[in-house]
């Protein structure tokens, strides 16, 4: 018999607990229906409430505790406190988001994967109807680069102050993320074939490929890592002659995401540039209300990967039961698919959840419904 | 009598010379009509052709020569050479764009200003019709930050390679760019009043202001300069109680540029984040075909400011006479307005050119016309 797969659930702040509750109720249905060997434990941290009581966002051994799980399902972090207190907002934002970055770093979740498809029913921001064909996967380097937190403030607070921030990129991390991108491009092409869908991308030499990887840099201004990224990309590309390659500067990429997002397939970007492009991709696929975010460590099965919706804790609507759980439910589906890499039953449950949420979205669109109503509608689809 | 205002015209590569030619022909009409004390000299550099002949993009004393002028009007830089030669493209891109960054640095053009309005006739990418109300000014710090070119590649080409890139921000440069942003917000509000237009922005305390400055950072991840930017912003904001303030993280800002760009007024961002946001703002206001870019040094009248369209040299359509000169003409109008800060006749000529180009755009939209046809149509409007 398969070992039980264990999930650490960290609902967090604001609307986090509300949307997570719907995920749990869907997981219960799926577990029951498919006799899944699946268990979960809820943690009261990281959260603002925990911070208020203990003076820290989570216990000192939080990472050790979480390591015992196969995945972390996170709601949302960040409680600004009273909304009229501007300073408190500014302050607590960076404190409460700390654990997010610590999990990514602590478990070396070096891939941040954010799929962007404009599903039927989701809000369409672009005028051009080809927006319906948006189907890209933005892969963000999630372990280094602009996010190494090195730097400081010299002569802080004086007119002569100098603030520095170091960006550090290693060839090893560059290679693994670019290779991951090419592997995903192949996988997506073969998944499309199974659904009898094809796409075609032209290589520089004029050949037609079923998939594409677009590398993002700003190598005309940030030369050092831009050149390294480009060289590694060209090296690895040679191993994937079946995948078309492309390169965009980050500023031009943002433009093209708006002008012709349907022309992209897999997009690989650095930590900060990926952060920017994934938010942009999220809005193109309907907004924060539908966008999942997966922080993965594909190379070490001893540490959990972490799954969160791209949206924040939305303190302005928290506690009212009106937050849209769609992104959280898509995120949960993604988690099951990831956990099911070697367990077809789990993977199938993930797909079932995805299709239930997508069907609900297609039927109801962005109609105003309560958190519970949407959760119930999805659950109903899972039961029947 | 007023001293003659002198412009250095650097057409550059690709479609640069073609669109610059239309600007010159318009300048001739305006000079004649208003007896402007205006002169210009064309330079064959910086350009790819010059590079091929001399082994460098421009002469060693280029900056000294240019310093004698009041402004630089630049077409576009970057000639990829034969388009089927991929490697050559990659190489020459960063070489040929060098002079752009050297001018900005050499003349301390510390403001990069890119207005974004969706003018009638321009292409609208967003579905929401409020896109017609887009009217923002993105102000980019143009002298330091991510663009200081410090860093390197350790163990280059080996599996152990580490590439670093340093970001350096000074409080002085931070103060001047933020203060510039607030001044522009005030100026815009007063200009709007003259046209009997008003806008309203709510402050944190609930007051209504006629203008707003939104600061962009990524302070939850790039903490050092993010904190410094935030502190300086809050300090300076106190001197402008009539201007509403706002703060966005760069990733959220990209989302909101797509979701509700009409809610922004003045936006102040760092060099790289500004680069990204200005490209995004450009596409929201109709695309590269209409977007001007102004590299200004407002504090030193002894050095020229530089004006260029946001678009590149578009080698794929160069030499065919089909490039749209609209962005170049808008850029030229901006230049005249800038040069006319203390010369009402020059400023008026700039506005006249702006209105002629805008009227042509409103009438013809994005209809396919040759470079010359568009130039002629605008000239005709100036003559009559
Ligand atoms: C909260 C913040 C630190 C985080 C990031 O920048 O990675 C967020 O924007 C995200 O995309 O997950
Ligand atoms: C060409 C490049 C170096 C430049 C920049 O990044 O500043 C360009 O993108 C721009 O926006 O003017």
From TrEMBL, chains A, B:
Region (Disordered): 365-384
Cofactor(s) essential for the protein: Mn(2+); Mg(2+)
Annotated Isopropylmalate dehydrogenase-like domain residues: 6-378
UniProt keyword annotation of NAD present: yes
TM regions (residue ranges): none
Keyword rRNA-binding: no
InterPro entries documented for this protein: ICDH/IPMDH (IPR050501), IsoPropMal-DH-like_dom (IPR024084)
Keywords of this entry: Manganese, Metal-binding, NAD, Oxidoreductase
Gene Ontology MF term list: metal ion binding; oxidoreductase activity
Protein name per Swiss-Prot or TrEMBL: Isocitrate/isopropylmalate dehydrogenase family protein
Species of provenance: Marinobacter fuscus
Organism phylogeny: Bacteria, Pseudomonadati, Pseudomonadota, Gammaproteobacteria, Pseudomonadales
